[in-house]
Amino acid sequence: QVRLVESGGGLVQAGGSLRLTCAASERIFGRYTMGWFRQAPGKEREFVAGIRRTSGSTYIPDSLKGRFTISRDSTQNTVYLQMSSLKPEDTAVYYCAAKGDTWIKVTPTEYDYWGQGTQVTVSS
After folding, report:
1. Sheet strands (E) in 25-112
2. 27-52: per-residue pLDDT in tens?
């Protein structure tokens, strides 16, 4: 099974940017559709972005479009989440997830593998 490790979280001021990295233990191209989720204290886990395993097509919810971008480096088995114009409400633990078919899903239970998460804190 694939292992996922997130990094790149931290403390940033409102309006700033961060790039999160998800490193996979094996090839993801053609094998895993990847997703980013986040979870704030007391809230449900929320879908942030997804990228399909072969085509590389992406999906970002309208509420985050324009600020968040997902991309991958297939040679490095890495997925990135670029976040800009960050707001205090973006504060959460961000998780990388993988699923073995081609469809991007927004429901956490559709994903088979998860990383341990990385904390993002946006100060006002």
Report:
1. 33-39, 46-51, 58-59, 68-73, 78-83, 92-99
2. 999 999 999 999 999 999 999 999 99
Both tokens of residue 108?
């956490």
Report strand pairing: 10-13 vs 92-99: unpaired
The stretch 7-22 carries a mean pLDDT of 98
Tens digit of each residue's pLDDT (9 = 90 or more) over 96-117: 999 999 999 999 999 999 999 9
Cα dihedral 70, 30, 117, 10 sign:
negative
Side by side, which strands form the sheet with 4-7?
4-7, 18-24, 78-83, 68-73
Do the Cβ atoms of 48 and 95 come closer than 8 Å?
no
